[in-house]
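testing teh design pipeline on a random one, pls ignore if ur not involved
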C-alpha cells in the first residue's frame, strides 16, 4: 500500500521539477499552489516570463481526495488577460502522469491566442 498523500509528498514530487510552494492565504479548501516560470514564444506583456501554476485543494467533506488545477494566466495583448486552466485532476499520481502533456497543451493554447487584437 502506498503512503498517503500529504503536502510534504506533493512538494517532494514537484519541487525537483522547478516548482515553488506558496501556502494559501485565504482559508478555504485550497491548500496553496506551486508555481514555475516558463519560457514561451509569446511572453506575457506584464511579466518577463509566463507562469505555470498548480493549485492544490486539500481533501474536504465535498472532495474526499486531493484535487489539482494547472493554469496559465497572463496579459496577451494590452489590457486583455487570459486564464487557461485544466482542472479536476484527481490525485497526485494523475497529476504527475499528465503534467507534461497538460503543460504542452496550455503553452500551445497560450501561443495560439488570436494576435488580431494587437
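output:
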Amino acid at each position: 500500500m502506498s503512503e498517503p498523500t500529504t503536502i510534504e509528498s506533493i512538494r517532494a514530487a514537484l519541487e525537483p521539477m522547478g516548482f515553488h510552494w506558496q501556502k494559501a492565504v485565504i482559508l478555504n479548501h485550497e491548500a496553496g499552489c506551486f508555481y514555475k516560470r516558463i519560457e514561451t514564444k509569446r511572453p506575457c506583456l506584464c511579466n518577463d516570463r509566463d507562469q505555470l501554476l498548480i493549485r492544490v485543494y486539500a481533501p474536504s467533506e465535498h472532495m474526499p481526495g486531493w484535487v489539482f488545477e494547472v493554469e496559465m494566466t497572463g496579459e496577451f495583448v494590452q489590457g486583455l488577460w487570459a486564464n487557461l486552466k485544466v482542472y479536476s485532476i484527481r490525485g497526485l499520481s494523475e497529476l504527475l502522469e499528465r503534467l507534461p502533456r497538460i503543460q504542452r497543451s496550455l503553452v500551445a493554447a497560450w501561443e495560439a491566442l488570436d494576435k488580431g487584437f494587437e
